[in-house]
């Protein structure tokens, strides 16, 4: 078991879009104390109004997995303690977790899609 002062390393990357779309998110390694609030910023520019932001998580030696999708403006979506709210007027979809754990150490990707994938988390 880790003490409350144990640090959690979280790594972020920037992903660019296609067709004139772009995504900007928190860059580089970020260290967060276990039990603290984590916020990852994600803003985007989209060519189409039907574009939707997604958050993916990739744990060490694992494939990326869908964490959250933003399909409805001003509606908070949640999964496994993570939450995000799609704010269309700001083109933002910031990811938060209130009390991070060592097991949350991973690479987090904010991505943009102009197609809605079936079976995704959030709405």
From TrEMBL:
The keyword Secreted does not apply. InterPro entries: Ig-like_dom (IPR007110), Ig-like_dom_sf (IPR036179), Ig-like_fold (IPR013783), Ig_V-set (IPR013106), TCR_variable_region (IPR051287). Keywords: Adaptive immunity, Immunity, Immunoglobulin domain, Receptor, Signal, T cell receptor. Pfam families: V-set. One of its GO terms (biological process) is adaptive immune response. PROSITE patterns: IG_LIKE. Residues 1-20 form the signal peptide. Residues 21-123 form the Ig-like domain. GO terms for cellular component: T cell receptor complex. SUPFAM superfamilies: Immunoglobulin (SSF48726). This is Ig-like domain-containing protein. It comes from Muntiacus muntjak (Barking deer). The lineage of its organism: Eukaryota, Metazoa, Chordata, Craniata, Vertebrata.
